[in-house]
Amino acid sequence: MNHHTEHPPTFLDTLSRPLRSLRLSVTDRCNLRCQYCMPEEEYVWLPRKEILTLEEVSGLVDIFAELGVDKVRLTGGEPLVRRDLAALVKMIAHNQRIKDLAITTNGVLLAESAQSLYDAGLHRVTVSLDTLRPDRFTALTRRDFHDKVLDGIKAAGQVGFTGLKIDTVVMRGVNEDELIDLLEFGRQISAEVRFIEYMDVGGATLWSMNRVFSRAQILEVLTRRYGHIEPVAPVSAAPADRFVLPDGTVFGIVASTTTPFCRTCDRSRLTADGTWYLCLYAQHGIDLRSPLRAGVSKAELISTIVSGWTRRSDRGAEERKEMRSREVLIPVERLRADPHLEMHTRGG
Question: What's the helix, strand, coil split of the chain in %, to 5?
Fold first, then answer.
């Protein structure tokens, strides 16, 4: 039984960042092959027997919730590829301590699963969409699913999801000419658009600084079109800086590359096979699956998590920015040898 009245303890890392937000990857597999995330056609997948069961995931979430986590975001790979996802949502939604349960999806399978996810208790949906042009979508994702994504976005609104967000990775020479179109699209469907600077993580082997379209450049383009843009006062440790257009339309920019927000980052990541990463850029994680399956006590799992977090000093994006020459983060040979270093494995 949950005791909802007591407040969980607040565990702070070495930079006084609280353990609050868990990104939970439910599968490393994906039904798209976006150039900036999964540039290869084939990957080394996590072995099925190593993927956490629903009960294992839900049990770990309960422990994290006892330690102060109140936000959970389901990620992948593409989370909707996992067939039993609605059952997992139901288990997590049942935990009264989780105040915000969201999903980030590419939207391809959303039309067919929106109702069951809504009924299971999912709070919010974010859809990744980098272009409104079908031909450009196919070139970028190497799949002809643009219509399905638009249908999925529509379905999310129809079944009752509010607070819909659209995530767009902005890449110079690829889609920076669509900022206004995407913002107008978001306005039409009552979704908040978040523009994300192209980051040099995981399989982003094509990344280079001159392909980054920065927050300053995004604001410049939008100011030319809309006039004065005001920042919205920050209210959270969320990664997006939020802005409002003269007509009241709100949008966000995630500027991890040019203005990292490591100092307020309360996020950690659990992979589908139970490896816990304390930073998106971390090269090593903490194995929670082995102790869980070996049957260690809950107290021991708690101790592993608390000691991991309280020792955390990661500032991955800031450290990358401080480098004089930013080469590719991890060479492709190493990515092939260790799937955990890929963003689709750790829920970028």
Answer: 35, 15, 45
Two structure tokens written together for 75: 């990620």
Provide the angle, in degrees to the nearest 10, between the axes of the packed helices 298-310 and 54-66: 60
CA distances from residue 5 to 8, 11, 70, 71, 96 in whole angstroms, order as listed:
9, 18, 14, 18, 10
**268-303 per-position pLDDT tens digit:** 999 999 999 999 888 899 999 999 999 999 999 999
Among residues 118, 221, 120, the alpha carbon closest in space to that of 168 is found at 221
C-beta of residue 155 within 8 angstroms of C-beta of residue 117? no
What CA–CA distance (Å, rounded) separates 176 from 197? 11
Rounded Cα distance between 210 and 107, Å, is 29
| Predicted pLDDT at 338 | 72
Q: Where are the alpha helices (DSSP H) in the chain?
A: 54-66, 85-93, 110-120, 134-141, 146-159, 179-188, 215-226, 289-293, 298-310, 316-322, 332-337, 343-346
Identify the H or E element spanning 125.
strand 124-128
Distance CA 271, CA 146 (A): 27
State which H helix or E strand residue 166 sits in. Answer: strand 165-170
Nearest alpha-carbon partner for 159 in 101, 209, 117, 206: 117
pTM over cut 0.70: yes
The DSSP symbol for 18 reads: B
> How many CB atoms are closer than 10 A to CB 162?
11
pLDDT tens per residue, range 230-252:
999 876 667 789 999 999 999 99
